[in-house]
Design brief:
The chain has two domains: about 40 residues; about 130 residues. The chain has three helices and seven strands, in the order ααββαβββββ. Strands 3-4-5-6-2-1-7 form a seven-stranded antiparallel β-sheet, with helices on one face. A hairpin with a 2-residue loop joins β4 and β5. This is Lipoprotein LppJ.
Length: about 180
């Protein structure tokens, strides 16, 4: 028998066919189970109303201003799509700026982060993009950093959960100012 002759035996063909069928069945089962789990997770997620989503970021922003004694704090929020440019679900995102004292701005940002941690926030498992601190609390993520456009200020960006299913494609104005 030559080297390729083994494949022409009925036993070899049956074994190859069984391996192919088993691979197809396991692959299909994996896809079906994965989709069922994803659908179950989507059904278990309770959507947030616009008011709840806004409160999820505005409430912590006000608390940070009060406990960390931030000076000249100003903020605004918008609804940002979590999956594309315009499709739901959305998350409320708040950008807040505050004045930094002259001198050691890093120390001041560390003080703000320490105040937040004492108030229930925790360091995030992933670091901030390139600089700054990243903290989390109750589904909200905060990124603290020095303002690159005006070094006399720092920014805190608060990101709520992706649970708002309202249509925000045509919000006007997109950003809403908040008094802190």
């Amino acid at each position: 028998m030559n080297g390729a002759g083994w494949i022409s035996t009925p036993r070899s063909r049956g074994l190859l066919l069984a391996a192919l069928v088993l691979s197809l069945v396991l692959g299909a089962a994996f896809i079906v189970v994965d989709r069922l789990e994803a659908d179950a997770l989507q059904r278990d997620i309770v959507p947030l109303t616009d008011e709840q989503a806004v409160h999820q970021v505005v409430g912590p922003a006000r608390q940070i201003v009060a406990t960390a004694h931030l000076k000249d704090a100003a903020a605004g929020y918008a609804f940002i799509s979590c999956v594309s440019e315009n499709e739901p679900p959305y998350q409320a995102v708040l950008h807040m700026s505050f004045r930094l004292p002259q001198g050691d701005w890093r120390r001041r940002l560390d003080e703000v982060a320490s105040t937040m941690i004492a108030d229930g926030w925790a360091n995030a498992s992933a670091a901030a993009e390139h600089f700054g601190r990243k903290l989390t609390s109750d589904g909200v993520t905060a990124v603290l950093q020095r303002n690159v456009d005006d070094v006399g200020f720092a920014t805190v960006r608060l990101y709520g959960e992706c649970r708002n299913t309202a249509d925000h494609r045509h919000d006007n104005p997109a950003w809403t100012e908040v008094s802190l």
